[in-house]
Amino acid sequence: MAKASMIALVSLGICLSSLLSFCYAHDIFFVEGKVYCDTCRVEFETKLSEPIKGGATVKLECRNRTVGGGITYSREAVTDEKGKYSIQVEGDHEEEICEVRVIKSPREDCNELMEAWNKARVLLTNKVGIMQPLRFANSLGFLKKEAVPGCAQLLKEMGFPSF
């Protein structure tokens, strides 16, 4: 009888410690994406687009959903040699709007901000059915100063009218 109550007591202790660790668990997310140079100046990725390697700066900001909501979380990252970035985010941001935006390009020939693809929204909560900590942001880009040769042909192959 003493052995059974000891096992029950130990089991209860394990259950309670697991419950406490679950309650105090800190949400951590990883936002990943890439930054590219739009070499055709069409504001979308093509096979002629190039990754902006080693040095493009992106910034993740979360803000209150209210009108004029203040920034509640902010973090910057820099692209690697493949044009990709990863930002570690702490905490659950269910009640906030979180976006990654491009800040700076290291390329002088490709540093003009795009109108459409300079930011990407990401959901940073486990309360939307996504349990994985990894979140992918849409690709972000900068416009090249001059379109490269081959763009007109590529756009024709893609079904766009002549320019």
Please provide a written account of the structure.
The protein is α+β, with helices and mostly antiparallel strands. 18% of the residues lie in helices and 36% in strands. The protein is built from two helices and ten strands. It has helices at 2-23, 151-157, and strands at residues 28-38, 50-51, 57-64, 71-78, 84-90, 96-104, 112-113, 119-122, 134-136, 140-143. Strands 1, 2, 5, 7, 9 and 10 form a six-stranded mixed β-sheet that branches. A four-stranded antiparallel β-sheet has the order 4-3-6-8, with no helix packed on it. The longest helix is centred in the first third of the chain and has 22 residues, at 2-23. The termini are far apart. The model is unreliable at 16-24 (pLDDT under 50).
State the gist of this model.
The chain has 163 residues and is α+β, with helices and mostly antiparallel strands. It has helices at 2-23, 151-157; strands at 28-38, 50-51, 57-64, 71-78, 84-90, 96-104, 112-113, 119-122, 134-136, 140-143. Mean pLDDT is 86; it is low at 16-24.
